[in-house]
Design the sequence.
């Protein structure tokens, strides 16, 4: 019998997973509570930016293999494997993860599942969640139904989501028996047959693998940014430092770029949720270093704001600031906890006139902070600017030429917040350019 799949929560992760499962040949039904999102998806329109995904969505909505609904009843009737991909944002009242959406989606499924089914958690959750949900399933499943649970964390990167789903670095499943394992192996058979490593483990390990990976990546970024604080004070070249240590295969060069820090819908909330969870477990010291990682990361934003102020002779009110990039990283329209957007808003709040251009993120940013001046090109953002800030390293900005930008600005001042421009070439034609990790000559430290 062919596998029938539902994907519950059709956001960045769920919409990608649903379309990729259809690409593997399954009949897939995507479920969400957001009717607007569902209507867009059902019309083959992706409501966010993700390279390669619109084509996949259109293909499988067109073929009828991929459908969308807000009906849990339909999902329970028409699928045997239910992937949970709802959000687990930071709680409004603390650092822990808000588990309401995961719990609600499982409860809604249990109301309607009447036969055998497997629920597969993919959302990033605090360790212990699967065990807690298993008890909930035992308690709430309909009489006569048989509902198993597995945890299958997701490691996709926005911007590479399709590739990461169809050709992941590894598949990790936390299972408590042979039957869920056999089903997951059937689902992922086309991916496994390409040689993808498989890690089979228990629920707790599977949950921890995901948060450990994110904690490690966040630590690596904050590690180099801590050294950036040192070179900003004493002098030195942070990129050369990163290159030099990165040659050591034990360290590696990736994620060692000093900049405005990490953001997005995952890393910041995941390291906070991990600290909150280990505190609940009585292990608050164990992950204490992550509080430092978070603080170093947040100080990057302060640094860029104060750098802009120094470049402008200490005066922000009334100054024209051009911001290039507001998403938390290129090739995404995601502005959740975006350092770039945060910096833009802080400059605005300090009295600057801020014009913003992002190739994909303007609409989402305007949804959160409508008072910034959003424009449609880098030329407009930089028009008559007293200082320009490159805050997200879109290819379009990496390719900027010093002569081109000089034509539109009022003053040749530039903060390269991602350290992607060739400083020497810009300085050659009189730009005052600096960025993270660099000691800024005029700055009063
Ligand atoms: P998102 O906010 O884009 O999507 C979550 C979706 O769940 C929304 O569409 C929302 O309407 C829906 N939802 C909420 N409650 C629901 C319910 N009761 N029933 C059905 N749908 C419901 O979030 P996301 O970025 O896709 O993240 C989802 C999970 O995946 C999180 O745990 C996140 O940490 C994890 N994750 C995300 C990424 C990523 O790159 N975005 C990567 C790996 C893991």
Sequence:
């Amino acid at each position: 019998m062919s596998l029938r799949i539902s994907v519950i929560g059709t956001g960045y992760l769920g919409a990608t997973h649903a379309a990729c499962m259809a690409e593997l040949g399954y009949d897939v039904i995507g479920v969400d509570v957001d009717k607007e999102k569902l209507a867009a998806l059902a019309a083959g329109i992706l409501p966010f930016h993700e390279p390669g995904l619109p084509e996949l969505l259109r293909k499988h909505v067109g073929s009828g293999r991929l459908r969308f609904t807000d009906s849990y009843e339909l999902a329970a009737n028409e699928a045997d494997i239910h992937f949970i991909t709802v959000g687990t944002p930071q709680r409004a009242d603390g650092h822990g993860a808000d588990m309401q959406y995961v719990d609600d989606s499982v409860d809604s499924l249990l109301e309607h599942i009447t036969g055998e089914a497997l629920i597969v958690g993919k959302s990033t959750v605090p360790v212990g969640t699967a065990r807690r949900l298993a008890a909930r399933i035992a308690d709430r499943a309909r009489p006569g139904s048989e509902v198993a649970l597995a945890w299958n964390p997701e490691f996709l990167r926005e911007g590479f989501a399709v590739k990461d789903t169809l050709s992941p670095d590894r598949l990790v499943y936390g299972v408590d028996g042979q039957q869920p394992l056999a089903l997951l192996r059937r689902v992922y058979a086309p991916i496994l047959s390409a040689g993808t490593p498989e890690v089979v483990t228990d629920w707790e390990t599977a949950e921890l693998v995901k948060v450990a990976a994110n904690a490690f990546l966040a630590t690596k970024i904050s590690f180099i940014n801590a050294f950036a604080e040192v070179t900003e004070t004493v002098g030195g070249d942070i990129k050369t430092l990163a290159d030099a240590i990165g040659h050591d295969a034990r360290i590696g060069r990736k994620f060692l770029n000093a900049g405005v820090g990490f953001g997005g819908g995952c890393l910041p909330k995941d390291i906070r949720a991990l600290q909150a969870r280990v505190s609940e477990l009585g292990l608050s010291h164990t992950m204490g270093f992550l509080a430092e990682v978070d603080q170093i990361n947040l100080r990057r934003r302060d640094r860029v704001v104060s750098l802009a102020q120094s470049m402008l002779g200490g005066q922000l009110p009334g100054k024209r600031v051009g911001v290039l990039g507001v998403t938390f990283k290129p090739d995404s329209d995601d502005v959740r906890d975006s350092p770039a957007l945060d910096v833009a808003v802080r400059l605005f709040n300090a009295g600057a006139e801020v014009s913003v251009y992002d190739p994909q993120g303007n609409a989402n940013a305007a949804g959160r902070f409508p008072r910034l001046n959003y424009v449609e090109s880098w030329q407009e953002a930089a028009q008559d600017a007293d200082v320009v800030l490159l805050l997200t390293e879109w290819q379009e900005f990496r390719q900027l030429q010093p002569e081109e930008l000089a034509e539109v600005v009022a003053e040749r001042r530039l903060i390269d917040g991602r350290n992607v421009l060739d400083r020497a070439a810009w300085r050659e034609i009189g730009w005052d350019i600096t960025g993270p990790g660099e000691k800024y000559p005029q700055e009063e430290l």
User: Anything to note?
Assistant: The radius of gyration is 24 Å. Residues 203-234 form the longest helix (32 residues). The chain has a mean pLDDT of 97. Residues 325 and 392 are 4 Å apart (CA to CA).
